[in-house]
Amino acid sequence: MRIFFYNNVRIFNIYSKQRHLKCTPSRFTAKSLVAFLLHFAFISFAQAQNCGSISPYPCSSLKASLPFELEFYNPVANTIQDSNNLGTGFTMVQNYSGTRLAQDGLPTFSNIPGYSKYNLRMANGRLHITSGKGLSFLNSNNQINALGVQVDTYNKIEIIAYITNPFNGNEDQQAGIWFGLNDKTYLKLNISANKIELRKEVNDLSTKTPGSKNPDQRVTGTISGLEAQNVGLKLIIDPVSNTASAFYTVDKGSTYTNVGAGYPAPALNISDMGLTNTSVYTGVYASYRNGASPVVYSFDRFQIKKSLQFDLSAYNFELADNAALNTVAGTVKATATDGSTASYSIISGNSNNNLSINSGTGQIVVSKKLNYHTQSVYNLKVLAAAGQLKDTSIVKLNITPGQTMPDFNGISWGTTASQPYKISEAQGEVVNNKLYSFGGFDSQKTTFTPTKRAYKYDPVTNKWTSIADLPHTPNGEGFGGVTHAGITNDGTDIYMAGGYTSHSSGTGQTFGVQQVWKYNVAANTYSKLPDLPIRIAAGQLEYLNGKLYHIGGTNAARTQDLGNNYELDLNNLAAGWKTRAPLPNPRQHAGSAVFEGKIYYIGGQRGHDSQLVTSKDVHRYDPASDTWTKMANLPAPGNNGLGHISSSVVIAGNRIIVFGGEAVQHASTNMVSAYSPATNSWTSLSPLPQARFSGVAALLNGVLYYTGGSKTNSTFKGIPVSMANTRSMAASFAPDGLNASEPFSVKKMTVFPNPAVNNTVNLQLENFGINEKVKITVTDSFGKIIQQENCTTNDKGIADISFVPKVSLSKNTYMIKAETATGSCMNKLIVP
């Protein structure tokens, strides 16, 4: 038979015979029964989950997140319980290393020796501790109910506890704050006999000599009337100076008095205690020590906070990727308890320095163009510093897609300004809605020789402008440049890796180099980056999460197709290129794109010249898992694949678009195909006006472009359209007064993209008079003129015009009218 007692009431007689249980109730109340069941459940939990001998909870749950505060009004789940099974908020009870005093009875649970729950009672915003006789002092280590939490000490912290009407006795009765590793090495800040004492003990050693020269004690004189006050104790731990300072207040924290004010060194040196830059325990305790009977101490608050503390340990912000430079993503703030001003910096997670922080205000701002596809989340670690005070916080910035291009199933192709020279195998990228084209084979030479010429195309002015020559070596008067280089951009600058470079003779080419260059768009200059591990050409280069990835290609001897995958961290250039999982089907002359954080390696070829075999394979690379996945095949003529598309792939809305390509040697295609990552499927779009390969494709202000390739310099301009809406988009009106029986060409205006994608308005006028002056007027739905522009048609009666409205266009339907002396036409622009 086993008899269970709860609060001195016999609850159950339990009989056991041959593994059968019989439970018979004895005298109890319903309230006693509920309390017993909770008590019994707590015992079971403690036995199953306890953290050693100090807690009934897992060790991982003991640490306090700062700021930490207990006010003892409401119970806290999964914390040390009082006599009424209310969670006190503390997560552990310090164990004792000595022998428990008989006056303190038996522990509530044998596996947590220092815990006596019936000495704890939480009520009306106070935690009442009926003190035990035991105490941790020198080799007398038998303190019970030293309640606490685990805390990190990498930053300067403050521990505060308030005690209401502390007992004034002369038998070492005391209560206060404890802070330490165990009951042998600790600090105690307590109230005893109306004095405030800070005491240090290391491995059961502490100097007892009284006076100002005691290195282990700071104590005040007797403070009259302290027993009638709400006394606040503050313990400050400084890991930089390795000191502990003690203060007290009797006016709710308005003023604090330094406990060590009368000492040559007010703070204690704790450098020999192992309490800083680690994890320790801290909390409250009480003891009646040499007194004749227990004393009840009432704590009405317990706090732990950093001396410099961020308002939040983690911030969450969100920003669209079309946010302008210097847009504020969010603001962090840290407050110092001494009133000093914090300065801020980003210490990690700032991929490619795309963001910056105002050191004075804590505003996190956009410093480079963001792109949802190349990085959708930034996890920044932000530092606040005020003198020697420091704190860190995590900022999670989620990047969302800005205005996205709507799906389309057709392209209305035309032509626009040609490049200055015919070109093939050039490399191209788009930055700030301008197309940059670099190198390629020099059409001014009779051999396959790279050129160092580079150009920028502006769709607004419809002009190509030369930019700084390529820096690839060898380089000199009449020679230099590159073809077959991998190329990518980070939204601000452009990168090139590998390729074929010019011979120093000015004719011919070198198959494969290790050179990597960065084109600084704003400065129109180049910077050298770490070389690739091997000589390589015809591979693909992509930017993702602050890193460059060079994938595939061919070796310098052109005898081997490569699947090599190299990664360069732009925030750690000194580390150089690292090897990642190789491309499953090694190949070169492919296309690629980054979509929603993954790299798509599209098509390509094996072998060269008459021996080349093109591929339909599409593989997706996930840098997070360093794995490749086979995706739906690329559409291509017959059984062939497509190669020579290295700069002919763009992202348009929710799809990846591939333009042209080479199916077999010297046989190009005009196919245009759209891949949907969401459905892993391909759709055919309106083909290019001519078959092309090795050209450069771009999406500028919602308009598609394909320039050069196949030894040409012409540029195709494609307006995305939805076939079902083609008629409405091409809506036009006949000139006033024209005889309906007379033959005429209807003036036509196309507005694109429509609905609008960004703030740029693009128009194409057709069937107007030759070199005819046209006035463009934009009005809102109420007829109010928003803007007027002027243009002149070319010798074919065509005009292309792009302009940015002087005022931002709000959600509305706008009318655009093109007027000339011979008539007009109109169309709508929808701003969603």
TrEMBL record:
Domain Cadherin: 311-408
Database matches in SUPFAM superfamilies: Cadherin-like (SSF49313), Kelch motif (SSF117281)
Recorded GO CC terms: membrane
GO molecular function: calcium ion binding
Signal peptide: 1-48
Listed Pfam families: Cadherin, Kelch_1, Kelch_KLHDC2_KLHL20_DRC7, Por_Secre_tail
Residues that span the membrane, as ranges: none
Domain of life assignment: Bacteria
PANTHER family: OS04G0487100 PROTEIN, PTHR46773
Protein name in UniProt: Cadherin domain-containing protein
Species name: Dyadobacter flavalbus
